[in-house]
Predict the structure.
Amino acid sequence: QVQLVESGGGLVQPGGSLRLSCAASGSIRSLRTMGWYRQAPEKQRELVAVISSGGSTNYADNVKGRFTISRDNVKNTVYLKMNSLKPEDTAAYYCNADVTHLSGSRYVRNELWGQGTQVTVSS
């Protein structure tokens, strides 16, 4: 069974930094695009950043220049380095991955989500 395990969330002051990690585990054949999304209370889930298997990146306008997404293909892990954090960044952050993995006796391609990690930016 494949799962995405997130870590790194917590409480940080405005202007501070935080680094999120998301590791995929299980019988993984390949990882394609991976990304981070976030959802604040009573708001829609929104894309934060995505990164392709080759390293191409895309960011939401309101985090560009402050956040950096990266990946380690050996460790099957995606990271989100967040600098100059603002109260508006407060949300539950979710990891997303396009995964081809072993399901029963076959390899299946699915889009998987992590359980979420809370980031709170407050003084």
